[in-house]
Amino acid sequence: MSLSVGVDIGGTNIKIGLVDETGRVLTRRRFSTDPIETVGNVLEKVARTVQSLVRDRQVESLGVGVAGLVDHQSGFVFTSPNLPNWHKAPVKEVLTKLTRMNVAVGNDANAVALGEWLFGAARNYQHALCITLGTGIGTGVIADSRLLLGANHFAGELGHTIINPNGPRCSCGKQGCLERYVGAEGIITRCRRALRQQQKRINASRNQLTIFGDGGERLSMIFDLVKYNLRRLTTKEIGRAAVKGDKIARQITEETGTILGLGIYNALMLLDPEIVVLGGGVSRMGKPLLRAVERAVLNRIYGTNRQVKIVLSRLGDDAGILGASQLPKLKLNNG
What we know:
The chain is an alpha/beta fold. It has helices spanning 39-54, 91-99, 108-119, 178-182, 184-205, 222-225, 235-243, 247-271, 287-298, 318-326; strands at residues 3-9, 13-20, 25-32, 59-66, 69-71, 76-79, 102-107, 128-133, 137-143, 146-147, 275-279, 309-312. It contains ten helices and twelve strands.
């Protein structure tokens, strides 16, 4: 049995898995990303974890997806907006020395796209747009059954397309990037603001949090889900409340889906994919988010014969692991 290891290094978590040739993750490990930890320390931890998974098995290769601008040939990470210490990092060189394995390194969103195309929702499609919604917004493009890298291997940075030149500053240093509006931090910030405004309205009329306020307004169920501690709020709670019809959760989800849908629409006009796959932690907001994205895209779609499917990932957290495991097999004939 042919085995390989896939590593998915994101802004929030690092996921590692041992993968067989059918795309099955046999065993996996996961730990939190420390954005201020040195690259060397992180890669040593990754190498130790990989070696613990491999042990006495015959493993062909190690593939690593990293959130950032990556040269897929050299395995050099130039910069990563959500990993500030990953600046000019020779990831392939370091991991090759630490593991003595055949190592390939690529952008994490490209790894996800490979995973979805080879094993997931985009399987059997020749043209696909795969978007990872999490701390950042990653995008991988399959065009004519090939991973599109671009001249500098930086293709697919949809999250850093600018939708408002006077908008909030992004981690990349620019203002008004799509990522600032539909990344996890932006969504949670908007939701907290809406919840605090609701608290003030209800307090102004009754000074109580758990009964009806003015006009019959009821406190959002999100408060219950986070045990009245808004610092615990994640997109998971927003999604759960939206499914149950919570007004604020639905409002935030609709806003997010509309803004994301506009970004996707622009990408569709350029790339003309058959399918768009939404993955990553934010995609767990589920069908309410998917429906909002579909409305934003399909109501604007240009071209009477144009057909595109928009779906949620089938692979979940395994998409990045599976795709990364295939990076060593990638033929770099792009650009």
